[in-house]
Structure formats: structure tokens, C-alpha cells
Design a protein that fits this description.
With 116 residues, the chain is an alpha+beta fold. The chain contains two helices and three strands. Helices cover 46% and strands 16% of the residues. A hairpin with a 4-residue loop joins β1 and β2.
Length: 116
């Protein structure tokens, strides 16, 4: 598509229409992403955390077999790992939404999540 009109001038109207269409696609992709629920897991799916694409935590499920009063640190590690897994899935979901509308890669932000 060209940014010039048939008379050789700049087609600002066409450029604005493209920008508006992209903005609408972006809003739709963000809404779809926000309404999607992912499940982060750890410990062989003994710990599960559900989170929406908007970053809202929905639920936590912990299998009784990983609850040991003498090893609280292990349970804390499992919960943290499940949180990181859910957050990584949300980042991937959001990046896929951006890719669908032609936005640049946000992969560098994934480093903010820390190790898995």
C-alpha cells in the first residue's frame, strides 16, 4: 500500500485509516487476551494457579500430598514456580496477540520474570 494519493501528494486520510484499523485490531486482541485464562503448574501439576491474560489471579489449587509442615520451603518454591509458569504463559499470550496485529517483539520483558 502506498502513502501517496494518485496526484502524487501524501495521503494522510489513508494513513489515518490504517492507524485506526490497527488500533481496533489491537483493542480486540487485548480483549481476547484479557479474557483468556491460563494455568501455571509445578510439582507435576500438584500446584496449579489460574491467571487471566490481564494478569488477574483467579485461583490456587494445592494437592494435599505436597503440604508438609516440616518442609514449608518446598511448598513456597512450588507456588512460586507455578506463579512464574502462569506469568510466562500470559506473556506468551500477550506477545501472540501483538504478533497477530503486527506489533514488535516484547521478548526482552520476559527476563523480568526470572528463572523458571
Amino acid at each position: 500500500m502506498t502513502d501517496q494519493n494518485p496526484a502524487g501528494g501524501f495521503d494522510l486520510g489513508g494513513l489515518l485509516a490504517q492507524a485506526q484499523a490497527m488500533q481496533e485490531q489491537m483493542a480486540q486482541a487485548q480483549e481476547e487476551s484479557a479474557n483468556t485464562v491460563v494455568t501455571g503448574t509445578s510439582g507435576g501439576e500438584k500446584v496449579k494457579i489460574q491467571m487471566t491474560g490481564a494478569g488477574s489471579f483467579e485461583s490456587v489449587s494445592i494437592d494435599a500430598s505436597v503440604v508438609d509442615a516440616d518442609d514449608v520451603e518446598m511448598l513456597e518454591d512450588l507456588v512460586l514456580a507455578a506463579l512464574r509458569d502462569a506469568a510466562a504463559q500470559v506473556m506468551e499470550l500477550q506477545q501472540n496477540a501483538m504478533d497477530d496485529v503486527g506489533m514488535p517483539d516484547l521478548g526482552a520483558l520476559g527476563g523480568l520474570l526470572g528463572g523458571s
